[in-house]
Fold these 4 entries.
Entry 1:
Amino acid sequence: HGRLEATLPGVRLDGSGSAAVARHVPRIISSLDSLCESIGELRGGSSYSLFSAPRGESVEGDIKRISAATPSSGAAIGATAVPHRFSAAAAAVSGTTVVWGGIEPIPLAAPSVSELAASGVSGACSGAVQVTFSGSDSAGTPYSTVRTFALPDYTPTALSPLIVYPDARATAIRVAVGALWVKVPLTASPDGRSAYYLAPDLLPVAISQSGSAAVPAANPPKLPIPGGMIVADAADPFMPRASAELPGGSIVAVAEGARSRSSWDFARRHFYLFATSGIYALSVGSRGAGLSVARISPAEVTAPAVAAMPQGVAAIAGGRLVMVSGSVVRTLADVDAGGATALGYDPSRGELWIGGPDAAATRVLADDGFIYERTPGVDALRGSGGRLWIAARGGVLRLTGTDEPEPAAASLVKIFWEGRAVAGGRG
């Protein structure tokens, strides 16, 4: 394992100046982006960034720079950024920007004991590290993650006086080595991205409590953020740059919006968020800067069915077929879309297909406004290469652009599984 050596200006090795550390360390933890600059990256089983903070000309100058540092922001980022993971209900890409919606953080396992140990002795040992989070499941069991370990030639005897875990929801860390253990409380950092413990005397924390060596059962937190959204770069889609959360509702779909023609807004990317609390317009600048969200319709959206058309983005809201363009949401046609779960646009014919398992039949809206029905029903619609494919009932795949009542047998493909994966970046 590696070791990070840090210089705290104005603090002596004898432990004096602990009050200064208590003031500065939380700010340093929350302001690494502004205090440090990246000097490289280590890649292996995991990826780690290396940071360096150039020392000032004087201790007083360093202290002033720390005091003036600007904390980062975004608790959702802290709970989802590497080394954590996350799942999302929907996503869309516009240029170099990715927006994820309907977030559920997947927390990092408890840290390795080697990352926490400050001292130790020779000899084999085994044990476990447990991180406890705020909240509990329906049975009242607190949320936690656990990592077990077995070291062949090293036995930790004390933990570092400063421990940081990258999730502000963490409330304590317990380390058990053989029949000895120690538990330290964690405090949320000012930026909401992490939690930390700082020993009052700045000295290593001895692993000296005696007790059971039993490994506690893990109970990973399941704390979804249904109205949460994350903005990332397409080149690194799993590294959040900015985040926000709707005041209510769950995001079920995300779609790319048209770019603004205004000179001051041209460089920004635009998206639509479709949620159970309405339809929202999202605007974001480079690398997630200047994120803004505004509700443009209170109509409820429950199905992840959206389709991009030349006129805008079609969706099913409040049981009706609507078109979203700019900041305007209008009824596209007098079609009862209740029960529909799929939308797809066929550019070769100028047709919008509406379907779903609960729909009596598949309804088609032609570019001249004429509405007609087709059978069989549609389970899913997917556009590819300027053509629209139907996953029809019974697991049959077919194109919408055929006038044949039944396609040739060679074009029938049974569909047993459907999925999508993003290559590149971190995953």
Entry 2:
Amino acid sequence: MALVSDAASFDQAVARLPRWILALAAAGTALAGAFLDLNHAGGFLVGALAAWINLRLIERAANRLTRHTGAKSGSGAGAWVFMQFTGLLSGALVILIFSGFNMAAAFLGFLVCPAAVVLEIVYELTTLNFKNDHS
């Protein structure tokens, strides 16, 4: 059996990632609030929000690089992405320091993006097996 990479399927998978992030952020924030306190829940929520913004920044940068029209080329795009990411991290750090939210919980919240990717992989594998069994 040969697996064929389909651009539409890839775009659908990328489009599902924010929903996975939202589900994980909601569940993690609720669990942190229920079992710990509001400082941990707020930290997790700030980290998850930063993860979502980071995903959007990476997605925009990748789209710029892959769908480049050719008018302007150079290293300016990479520097701009780096400055945006640095600004995101600096802003999140300032929010965490002045809000009193828990930094460890924020770091765990930031990990919802890789967790969403893992869930998407599991989803793709289970739907692939389901499609193959019913073909």
Entry 3:
Amino acid sequence: MILDPIIQRGAKCAGSVCLGVCLANLAVVAAARAEQGSSDGFWPTPRMVELLVERVVDDAAITHRLDDRQRGIYRENLAKALPAFFEKHQADLEPVITEIIVQHISGEVPDPPRMARWGGKLLPAWRDFTAKYEEAYQAMRPHL
């Protein structure tokens, strides 16, 4: 029982360190984007998109038991589609993502009107995403 408070403090400390590292990384990204003349919101870097593609492919490979050839086809298709999707919807997604991150970091709970506003702004991207998902599924069907 005596270790419980120590473990709790360690977990809080680790969480604080992780949050600090994340905030430092966000500051670096924001500074780099400011130099480039882009917005001050949070947006995934090309490396983050690469990692997201790898994660999605790895998860799908486990869930759907994809072989190496299928994984390669899926990775190739997703690596083209995901950046195009983000670029197409950046104007709608970036401000909402930034607002959600700020809200989360501040510890505030979003009120229903704010969440409804977010939902309204995200709905067009969500509809496009579901259509793209169906296209990707149809493209993979012959390879499954």
Entry 4:
Amino acid sequence: MSDPDKDRSETESSTVCQLTFTSADQRFSGTALVLVQGDTEEEAARRKAAKTECLGIATVAAVPNGYSAYRTCEQNNGERVNGSVVAAKGNRWTHLSVFTSVPAGAEAAAAIAYAQDMAGKLAELAMTLTESKEAGA
């Protein structure tokens, strides 16, 4: 964070964004909601990730290398599904959800797998963001 708020240290930054997407094969489209927050200590980030509610039903996922917390959830609402990740790595933690449509004639399981894969990839990107002082970067 280049210009922190007066009463906030650089390590206590946060970013919230919403992304819309269509997969390369155009089978899936939807929205990703991302929250990334920094904390002063790794343990504090891990505790926040551990306390944050994951959207949907918990699923089994291996904890990637370097993460102090990593949970995944899924939710099936018929025509739309979502995959969510709550994770902590270093002094950052993230909570993100990928909502996508279920293509006509497709199984919801395929859409859930796509959403979970995308959520995991976005979590890794969120944990490795670097500071940029360029406008619009």
